[in-house]
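Margin note from the TA: students keep mixing up input and output lines. Inputs are the sequences; the output is the structure of the whole complex. Example:
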Amino acid sequence: MGSYLFYFSTESIAFAKTRCQPDLLYWWCVMHNNSLFQRVFQLFLTLFVVLSINFALPRLMPGDPVITLLGQDVTVVTNSNLAELRSKYGLDKSLGYQYAAYWQNLFQGELGYSSHYRQPVTETIKDHLSWTLALLMPVIAFSTLLATILGTFAGWKAGSKLDYTLTLGSLLTYSLPQFLIGMLLLKVFAFELRLFPLGGLGSGSSDSALTNFLDTVWHLTLPVLALTISATAPKLLVMRNSAAKEQQQDYITYATAKGLSTCRILSVHLLRNACLPLLSLLALNIGFIVSGALVVEIVFSISGMGTLIYEAAIYRDYPLLQGCFLILTVFVVCINTLADFLYRIIDPRITNPL
Amino acid sequence: MFRSRLSLPMYCGLSLLMILILLALLAPMLAPYSPSERFTPFALPSAAHRLGCDDIGHDILSQLIFASRVSLLVGLTAAVASAGLGTAIGVLSGYCQGYTALFFNSIIHIVLLIPALPLMLTLAAYVGPSLGNIIAIIGLLGWCSTARVVQARVLQLKSMPYVEALRSLGIPEHQIIVKHIIPNVYEVIAAKFILAVAYAMLTESALSFLGLGDPMTISWGTILYYAFHRGGFVNDLWHWYLPPGLCIAAATLAFTLLAFYLEQKAQQAKILTEDSAHAA
Amino acid sequence: MLEAINLTKYFTQGLLNQKTICAVENVSFQVPPGKTLGIMGTSGSGKTTVAKLLAGLIRPTAGQIVYKGTVLSELSSAQARLFRSKLQMIFQHPSLALDPRQTIVDALLEPLFVHKLIDSRRQGLAKIDSLLHLTQLSADILPKYPWQISGGQAQRIVIARALGLEPELLIADEPTAMLDVSIQAQILTLLNDIQRQTGLSLILISHDPDVIRACADRMIGMEEGKVVMNGIPAAILPPSDGLFALRNTLPTYNTGGL
Amino acid sequence: GCGSNKQPVSGNSSNIPSLTIGTTMKVEGINIEDYYFGILRGIFTHKGLVKLDENSNFTGDMAKSWSTADGQIWTFLLQDGLTWHDGTKVTAADVKFALEYNMKHSVEYRSHFSLIKSISTPDEKTVVITLSKPNPRFLVNLLVLRTLPQHIFSAVDNPATYNDPKAAIGCGPYVFEKLDTKAGIITFRANTTYFRGPPPIPEIKVRLFKNPDALYMALQNGEIALPYTYSAGTDPIYAANLAKNPQIKLTNIPNLGVSKALIFNVTKPVVNDPQVRTALSYAIDYNELVRLFAPTSGIAPTAGLVPRGTPGFVETRPLEFNPEHAKRLLEQAGYHLTDSNIREKNGQPLTFELLIRSDIPENIRLAELLQKYFNNIGAKLTPKTVDITLFQTIIDKDRSHTSMLSRTTPWGMMMWAGMGTGYMDARNIGWAMVSDAKFIDLIDNMNSTLEPEAYKIHSAALQQYYAENLPAIPLYWDSFIQPHNAALTGWKISPMYGVLNEETWYNLKNSTR
Amino acid sequence: MLLNLDKLQVYFTVGRSVLQAVNEVDLSITERTKTAIIGETGCGKSVLAAAIAGILPDNAQASGTITWENTLLSPKLLRTIRGKELTLVPQNPLGSLNPVLTAGCQVSETLARIKPELTSAERYHNTLELFGTVGLAQPGTVYRAYPHQLSGGMAQRVLLAATIAGTPKLVIADEPTKGLDINTRNQNVLLMHQVFAASALLLITHDIEVAATCNSLIVMYAGELVEAGSAKEVLKDPLHPYTCQLLHSHPSHGLTPIPGLPPDLTSLPAGCRFANRCALYNKLNNSQKQLCLTEHPPLKPPGSTTAVRCWHA
Ligand SMILES: Nc1ncnc2c1ncn2[C@@H]1O[C@H](COP(=O)(O)OP(=O)(O)OP(=O)(O)O)[C@@H](O)[C@H]1O
Ligand SMILES: Nc1ncnc2c1ncn2[C@@H]1O[C@H](COP(=O)(O)OP(=O)(O)OP(=O)(O)O)[C@@H](O)[C@H]1O
Ligand SMILES: [Mg+2]
Ligand SMILES: [Mg+2]
């Protein structure tokens, strides 16, 4: 139920008590006999593993991380100048040392220096993340809103023409590759009709806050549209299915029998129950959405997180890659926790506190 | 009433899929030319070349037809890998208790936490572009959602009276899993599998688009890649970039239609069992 | 034959401030061979928990189950499986107790194969034939799926499946709660008949005093996990008022207009 | 040679209030180690001691004149009236500082200036550079210098991370104003205190694009005046369409680099045989490659590698497509056909790997074609696409490639002993790993001779060596295609930076007004 | 006459087959009558109730006429009286409450529809009063409780509270005691008679003891009425063999089961639908048997409140 944190059956604890195995993890669990503790413990365990993977992943990639630092034009490469760069970026130390330093830095909130962007990682990420969020917030908002409203109607009228068109339409848009949507939008609306800019997030002329804001909105319209088109479909389908299922429940029949208006049944009764799976889906997909806008970023020349990760990976910028992973991980954890909260608020049946 | 309507999407999906599969199987017969034969570069559509030629003179129609093989292959194998892995881990994490559940649950959560795109980029950079690697990457990353859905369903099934009844009859746990749990998550798995095919094909095209695919094999994704990077868009060569995009869309649509149908069936089956609980 | 001594089961619930629920506390009773023990009690009094403890589906927090001199909770899981075929349980929801993907015939055959009571399908079919006869079912039900049969039939299939293992004790947990009166009568008379024919012991769980009165030789009454009554039903339970029992309790009967 | 930049400022030009340049170069920051911003520095804000004029001759940049007697001691006399953008005077000490600072902090510069033994500044206007041994070609290395202000950088310990606007202070004709990463726009403003007088275009903006399609759409919509990429032109696939637009004019800029070359690692089996390499050179259909990849300006190359416009070029064997001859050569070399359709010599199959960068679709297409060409003569080529980091690791560090596909830049062709020797010589960049005695001898001679005539003779011999040994096969020669808004005229061309250079700023006119 | 059903028929289309769930039911209910319907599972009791309340599922087709206070019960009329004058106590109390809304919210929502003039504070107090009326000990707590926090009995009472929010003329209760244990059942049945004293009640149940609390009783079998009459008389002195055999299967009446299965509603026999299980049938002579098998028995005497559908009763 809780979409993200661990499910722990009370049954297994009871078993643990009778078996009483002298094992560390069980010992902890039994001693504290507190599932909140277990959850937090496991969360940290997972985080530990994930963050360790984040450390290992970039280093698993073939290719020398400092080679591109020599400049992309022709240069004579000698081992000594590579070694010098390596020591400059702390890559000459043993892996164990680097790993220890990685954790130490993490605890100090220090993400290091991006070798490719030549900026503190935090700063690089801050810029890119803010643009990604500027791009994604409206996408998430619009697509969720659209999916919720249309999905509820489709589910309520399951089997009707309306349901049919909406379902088929969203299946169709779901099938279109994102970059195709993006390129077609760019071509038609920006190039042929010249209604929107050809890319970027602003015109660079910052006269007043308002014009600046409007300018940004104008620049964001097409990419947001492209992403919204492809992000709405899966949500709509989930919403529709869940609404169609809830619509057959007794409480809806009873609500009808009570003489409530369709509007109230839909908005108060059906919606709150049916939106739960959508919430899980949203929380689950958030990580992918944040980094997965890469294609649209490329099409619309936006420097977002997708591009950042892409560049970091291509240029083996270890600290930056680690930083991006960390941010995404934190993002996913936070959103999921938030979703968990919301889930609990919407669905009182989940009584367990976080 | 809805049931009768539902079969229409299924028929649409099935026939679309049949067409594509036939296309792939009969490629050498259907394609007017060999996919590697070169004619006038950037030739516009004509009687000789229905969809014109690409930047180095390949007949686009022939390429499209041959590409269906690779694209379908990638889609299916990646989906088999991801659905297989997802089912195994989903069932184990859902059915088992204690350590085993903890272990598999942790794996699911860890993979869920690792951001997919960076991992994909990293893996692609690590293993280099080749068809096999793309399949492996999509398979490895795609199993998570299957596992979650399967796990949820298994948790639900586990508390169904029939499982308890089987346990009280002394049926061994592994037999319960194999004979009684997995067949009952079948629709979920089937739906997820088919969705995974669609997902894999979309991902393949996206990876190709980003230059992380194998540019040496002809897939719809790579045709689009070249169309995009070799001036197809700017020069308005719609006959170059549109058909592969539409092929991807059609194949994905075929699979999603089927998945949608199966999902509906699965849901009906679920409602059926729940209903019978009340009715009985 | 079977004796429960001070059975206790606690459940823990909640995450932050865990609550311990005493589902069953210090329950002791005996089931003599060939007799029926009725367990009565209101909802949530721990009847199902007792049944599950006896069937070995959950482990007791404390207490022992002694079956023919063997203490069940001390057995290893392999040994326990042997005993499990001797102690069979049937559940409240008949149609949910069958795998919806399995035909009736397979559902009947499976435990027989697992416990090596049959070697071949043919042998199994012969055995099933006798089971169907015992439960008054016709053979045309065999190829059907659980959702194609009625609740009463499903309950009979479940009973036949349990009987196939030649149990010495059958625990029926509210076997008719989900069925209507006429089918309830079918099932209960069936259980009585079987008991007469095979001499198995029966634990019948129900909250309906009429049912207990009609079927049980001895009974215990439970409330909040504890045994509050123990004895012969006719002695403990008040005599039945018949169909008008409830009507008679209406304080001022409103005759309305008829 | 000496030169002076003092020219009368052309005051009567129809003024261009603002010029927008589009680029797909990825500028990430304004620190001095950012590669792409470094190019913009060279174009707009910073100056070196010398630069190349339109005919590839050295001319003064910051230096008014220079002299050397033996190629070991170089004396430069600085231009008068040069000031940094913040008003401070430019002195010889700044030049000395910049060279030393760069050598201290940048590995790249250290390799360019490794010959420098000492630098002295006898007075404010004179810089004397002493090399450890005579090197007549030293000025080539100096071309990459972008002089830095001592008063700012002496306090900067780690220039790689110095992204303060002050990091962009130079003494060039334009002043860096800002880098707007959100909009992807870099703004430069005319330097009003420039010693030649302020350049006539008061504002120049560089718009960053991530995708060339959007860039060329912007060009067609008139949003940008010209697209620009360092040492590369517009891909012909875009050019064809742009040519139809009357608003846009395409200019051809001579390219002294080789646009695409198949470079062999001559130490690796199979391709270490010059006869095999020669045979392979006959398998390639150069005319088709020109048709496909450089239809407007491309020509089939000669075996001497160096493009025809290069000073000192001599005609060598034209590369021709003759598969039958290729097969004959392979038979002669001992490679015979087997059942698998791949030739073998004593059990050694004629197969080799070609390393290509995955982010250059053109190269992948080329590799695909090469694979087919070689397949025709019974040689199997396996393309291996890798990303840029891995590519550089393999070719520059591990040197484990068998063959690779790359371009050579005009400046790269000039470095080491010139004539592309840097790319070949195992002692330098050495992608081809050539180290045979005859070649080394030629290089040493070219590197040490002070006589232009002697240099010409050696370089002619070198081109002959290339033609016979083929350590690299040029696939085609072409010019850079530079599109620009047709209304703008008066473009000047620099061999290093193409149309974007100081002379252009002073000559560009808007002909419509 | 409060409610009158004339030849009500309900069919379901399932795949290609048509299932006759309710066949030609004539029924009339006057003000303040308490009527119980009993019958085996699947005999069409719930469908009948749903047809009256107008909440049949999509795949149902109904024919016949329903009149409400002598006017035809049109969808429009139904919409205005539903929840006010015609109310429903659903079969599955826990499932019929929206799991994500508090019990109080769901009752006050009904109040808001019935008495739109109330302010939210008034609604709150009225709801608490209603909870008190249906015998909930702590109305305040129940108001804030979510359905999953209620026991079956409490949920049932919450639904009763919602039902009496208006002044219902007819209450249809579909198995209000299903799944409750015997004490709760008794309490709730008594409560129901108390709070619905002024309304007509149509009580659908399996539980003969509960049915006995009403004053008139209708017995259904395979989609049709087989017997109707005063509860006391029918239960004491059943006329139809099915009623008879049903009563005998009650534990306190000897636990004698009815043999066989009810007919398949998709292919009904031509004659009496109970013939194959009938105890009386076996005692008949051949020609009488023939009548049972070939001719569908009418409800007789027609139009009377006491009627039976059997050739030989
Ligand atoms: N797995 C469990 N975890 C926590 N509590 C449980 C569990 N199973 C049962 N309980 C609790 O134990 C108590 C007894 O439950 P049990 O199911 O035995 O009652 P019952 O007498 O069978 O009731 P009913 O008549 O409703 O079937 C109840 O309060 C119930 O909430
Ligand atoms: N939506 C439906 N589609 C098809 N058949 C239906 C539908 N609803 C009910 N039926 C059928 O109609 C018949 C009567 O059903 P109904 O629910 O009225 O029985 P019931 O008398 O209320 O039984 P129970 O006592 O089990 O509640 C049954 O055979 C049932 O299978
Ligand atoms: Mg129970
Ligand atoms: Mg019913």
